[in-house]
Design goal:
This protein is α+β, with helices and mostly antiparallel strands. The protein folds into 3 domains: 5-282, Rossmann fold (3-Layer(aba) Sandwich); 293-375, no CATH class; 377-438, Nuclear Transport Factor 2, Chain: A (Roll), CATH 3.10.450.720. It is 27% helix and 24% strand. The chain has 13 helices and 20 strands. Strands 4, 5, 6, 7, 8, 9, 10, 11 and 14 form a 9-stranded mixed β-sheet that branches. Strand 18 (404-410) and strand 19 form a beta hairpin. Helix 4 (85-92) packs parallel to helix 5. The longest helix has 18 residues, at 191-208. The two termini are 31 Å apart. 47% of the residues are buried. The mean pLDDT is 93. The chain binds S-adenosylmethionine (SAM). S-adenosylmethionine is lined by residues 82, 102-109, 126-128, 131, 154, 170, 172, 200, 204. The site of S-adenosylmethionine (SAM) has 18 residues, from helix 5 and helix 9.
Length: 438
């Protein structure tokens, strides 16, 4: 693999004797790892990712598209270094916190955070609209109802009225840690691009800073190695925005490197991609006027059929969005409604049903939700070939299934809905999620 000479020079300055081992590792195959959802116990734990209890390495890369469990959200394919976020959350953020993942697509860190926040709320945001849809799909597959997916600019949050206990900024960066995964990152790399990225990161941080509570936690990360985007930006946050560095407990055998503030994952030392992560605590309030949350929207729950409540297990408030009904965890319904009113929200809570005349059509978000009351629906467990046929969007024929909406499962894990008409079944798997012929 050919790397830009200015990049090699920088890395030689940073790593001295270790640079050749680093460059060799950066040219070698990427390790494959997954993080398992609590929907299902899957892989054996012979090769755990040491810093994340749900993470494990796989001996080789399976054809994930051919595995219905992948589409059911039983696991997320995530490179191992990124799972270090678990340590930042475990050591600094409580399980009932309100957290914003500002740069969230495709959703690796968001799915981890939503699982960690067992009694909290995650707002997962992505500025690029097409990527925000992918984020929303991955969040729905993961199945936690404690999540809102937005497509907003960082500055929009400062005026939203919602203040966060923690904010994750997994910043767009020059991507040096991705060189072996994405040769495009090598072609785009230049010292000028590194400077531009460092500057953009400061703009993003400045814009989001007012939305972080005083004493709140910022987790700043990049997948690049240069100091400008990493330690220098952390020092800039402390001096210019007002924050204190929060050290984490790490084990020596994890082979993580530190140069002052922040934790670095180098591919020749840890099994994973390049990553930089630092945790900071906001020391002073931002002197801007933050609107108090006040919901003008009248609850429309009176027009929502009460039988929908039986479709879920847990404490949810139902809310309509046009002809659709979503279920919001009651503890966070007010904040979620406020975000729905003010931000470009793509999904919130559990997408439950569509009301068409007198019929209620169960939605894909419900099928994959951890909160579905499976007792409320007829279901059929499919084999591998039929599951793939379903995920391709083909018409299905179900023998011995009752007429009406039927929940399809693979390995007892829901994958979606069909409407059984007797001689055939209409496939309700969302068009945009369908897989191509495999
Ligand atoms: N956190 C994600 C995960 O773990 O799956 C990966 C995020 S990726 C490193 C950075 C994201 O920042 C991209 O999705 C990109 O579209 C988004 N982004 C680009 N420009 C941005 C900006 N000006 N403000 C906020 N986010 C931006």
């Amino acid at each position: 693999m050919e790397f830009p000479s200015a990049f090699v020079d920088n890395m030689r300055t940073l790593l001295s004797d270790e640079c050749d081992a680093f460059l060799a590792a950066l040219s070698s195959d990427t390790p494959v790892s997954v993080r398992v959802n609590d929907k299902l116990a899957l892989f054996d734990d012979k090769m755990p990712v040491p810093w994340c209890p749900d993470g494990c390495y796989l001996p080789e890369r399976p054809f994930f598209t051919k595995d219905p469990l992948f589409h059911a959200g039983a696991y997320y394919v995530q490179e191992a270094s990124s799972m270090f976020l678990y340590q930042a959350l475990r050591q600094c953020v409580s399980h009932d916190a309100v957290v914003l993942d500002l740069c969230a697509a495709p959703g690796g860190k968001s799915t981890l955070a939503s699982q960690y926040l067992s009694h909290g709320l995650l707002v997962a945001n992505e500025v690029v609209r097409s990527r925000a849809y992918i984020l929303s799909e991955n969040i729905q597959k993961w199945g936690n109802g404690n999540t809102v997916v937005c497509n907003n600019q960082p500055a929009d949050f400062a005026s939203s009225g919602v203040m966060f206990d923690a904010i994750l900024v997994d910043a767009p960066c020059s991507g040096e840690g991705m060189f072996r995964k994405d040769e495009g990152a090598i072609a785009e790399w230049s010292p000028a691009n590194v400077r531009m990225c460092a500057e953009r990161q400061r703009e993003i941080l400045t814009a989001i800073w007012p939305a972080l509570k005083e004493g709140g936690i910022l987790v700043y990360s990049t997948c690049t190695f240069n100091r400008e985007e990493d330690e220098e930006n952390v020092n800039w946050i402390m001096e210019e925005l007002g924050a204190e560095y929060v050290p984490l407990d790490i084990e020596e055998k994890w082979n993580i490197t530190t140069y002052g503030e922040g934790y670095r994952f180098f591919p020749h030392k840890t099994q994973g991609e390049g990553l930089f992560m630092a945790v900071l605590s906001k020391t002073a309030p931002t002197s801007t006027h933050v609107r108090k949350i006040k919901n003008n929207k009248k609850s429309k729950s009176s027009v929502i059929p009460s039988e929908l409540k039986k479709w879920l297990v847990g404490d949810f408030t139902l809310s309509s969005a046009g002809t659709f009904v979503r279920a919001l965890p009651t503890a966070y319904a007010e904040i979620m409604e406020s975000l729905i009113e003010r931000m470009r929200v793509l999904s919130a809570g559990v997408k439950l049903a569509e009301q068409k005349g007198k019929s209620l059509i169960p939605q894909q978000g419900l099928a994959l939700s951890k909160h579905i009351n499976r007792e409320a629906f007829s279901s059929v467990n499919l084999g591998l070939e039929d599951s793939l046929k379903y995920l391709r969007g083909e018409a299905m024929q179900l023998t011995d299934a009752p007429l009406g909406y039927v929940l399809l499962k693979y390995n007892e894990l829901p994958i979606g809905w069909v409407k059984n008409l007797g001689n055939r079944s209409n496939n309700l798997y969302p068009n945009e999620w369908r897989i191509r012929k495999v």
